[in-house]
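Posting for a labmate who doesn't have an account.
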Amino acid sequence: MYLYRLGRCCPRTCPSPGAASCCCGGETVNLLRVSDDCVRLELTRRQLFERIWREPMVKLSREFGLSDRGLAKLCARHRIPVPGRGFWARVASGQNVKRTPLPSPDKGDQIVVIDGTGPPVAPEPSPPEVLAQIDFERRPENIINVSEDVVRYHPLVRAARESFAPRKQDYKRGLVSSGPGTLHIRVSPASKVRALRILDALVKACEIRGFEVRSSEVRASATSAQDAETIVKVNGEDVRLVFEEKCRSVEHVPTATERKDLARGSGSWIPKHDIVPTGLLSLQIDPFLSKTTWKDNAKSRLEACLNDVMVALVQTAILVVRPERLRQEAQQREWKERARREGIERHRREILKKALEEWRYAHSLDDFLAALRTAMMTAEIDPDGPSAQAEWLRWVCDYRECVDPFEELFEELEKPIPDWHWNR
């Protein structure tokens, strides 16, 4: 067992190590390395309490090498209160949420020992492209502003705006979508103008930064199979964007006709709830991979998040989309190599099967000739005489000399294996 003294505060448990007033209270934290795959961390109840209320337990549990449920049980054993459900959502929305004070400890319960499943893992540094994009977006001259009165829409946005008119409205949700072959927008008629302004500012900002924006052919979705997707090409990678309005469920108010049906006892078809638009817009990056989302809330609106979207586009392209593409390409190469090996094996088996048939046929001819000579001797027919039987025997012997089971095999093995054997 090795003991490491990590100074006045532990970088692993304190977000501001070495500061005059840190969350650890300036106390020493011991990190005991029990083995290469097991780490024991000793800290006070106050230190753990401060960390619990500074960042979500899901993130903190990964840092400690525990599950979030395991960390919650540890806090319960040491009478350390934890944030309740919805705490971090209220903090994110700007609310001033009070935290539960730390109760007095039981006698002898000042130190908390955390047995993690692995050594401390330092966070990976951000790629240089992401750091450069963050620095670019922080400059005042690069702030993305959404104009309240757009004089000239971007051609892609103008095409999406013109495609709204002939489209049928989704009466279940009260939303309308842009047409096929255009940038994907799915909002209510009341939010359409605002959504177009935001999308126009977003597309123009992408082009200024060297990102290519386009629409896909068909959106692969079960709910909107005829809609296109918005694709942003960043650092050579395609990142998808989903721009739509959030909806909520409200209690259905029966109409006059529905009330009559209910009175007659035939209103089982009437829905209990309706899905209505909320007016809150959301922008989601690659919902199948990263699921990074910005949306309107009580603290800020979507218009103020567009610079963050630019950074997230670069981050998603480099850290999410590119590794996934490389993984798929490696998987495709593995499948092709496996198919190639299987094709070679199948081709060789076919050659072997054919060679065995030829070999058995040649040996059958030898056995047949021996039996034929025996039968002719028994019938007192001279095999070398002028009779028709002797003449046919000589033809069979000549034919047997032409049957070589290995000559065709050797010629076949010299030929390259055809590609169709690999791609079956």
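Reply:
Got it, the structure tokens are right above this. The CA atoms of residues 294 and 309 lie 8 Å apart.
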